[in-house]
Design goal:
Growth Hormone, Chain: A, mainly alpha
Length: 212
């Protein structure tokens, strides 16, 4: 963030706004990928979303203005939500049912592994090659789409899925599940807001402390 601020003369508030837009579009991408995964299988939306992420990340390395960062990071959110929905579903449905609880916990906790790797990578790349090179490096992991295409099987549960059940009437859902849905959505919304507010700004706090 500090390097982008200096190059384009924008405020920290504008940069955190880019994070917000990413997360808002993540919701849209997740809903779209969930629908596509039920219709065409889990692998296709996962692979499309990974290519989408690579393109959006890599393109940021060549942006001429901060407006393009906002646009590309907003579009990045679509792929971010889509990859998580399709990827976790494919992983869970390919794993033995008896240990899915354990593996889902490991999958959720792997955010920390990625952040732990991203820190030293950024600490080495940015001083030597600049912030733009960091986005080129970030575009590389989604290229795992190639081995996924050839070596990861489609979800067996999706392949043997039963015909869809008739939709539940709105009146019945409202009476039995609406309160739980609203409560769960609010809990996740507040949790996500607190989480990303901390992890997005923590590196900048460390940077300010180093300056002092």
């Amino acid at each position: 963030m500090p390097e982008i601020e200096r190059e384009f003369g924008v405020s920290r508030v504008a940069l955190t706004g880019a994070v917000t837009l990413t997360l808002l579009l993540r919701l849209v991408g997740g809903v779209a990928a969930g629908s596509a995964a039920d219709r065409w299988g889990r692998k296709l939306p996962l692979m499309v979303s990974m290519i989408w992420l690579a393109v959006c990340d890599g393109a940021i390395a060549f942006v001429p203005s901060f407006t393009w960062i906002l646009v590309l990071r907003t579009l990045f959110g679509l792929g971010m939500g889509a990859e998580w929905v399709a990827g976790t579903t494919l992983a869970m449905e390919n794993w033995p049912a008896r240990s899915r609880g354990l593996i889902s916990g490991i999958l959720q906790g792997s955010w920390a592994i990625g952040m732990g790797l991203a820190g030293p990578v950024a600490a080495w790349i940015v001083p030597h090659f600049g912030w733009r090179a960091l986005f080129l490096v970030a575009a590389a992991p989604p290229l795992l789409v190639l081995p996924i295409r050839f070596f990861v099987p489609e979800s067996p549960e999706w392949q043997t899925r039963a015909p869809p059940a008739p939709p539940v009437p709105w009146s019945a859902m409202r009476a039995t599940h609406l309160g739980k849905i609203v409560w769960g959505a609010l809990a996740v919304a507040f949790g996500t807001g607190a989480y990303y507010a901390l992890v997005s700004m923590h590196p900048n706090g460390a940077e300010q402390h180093t300056r002092i």
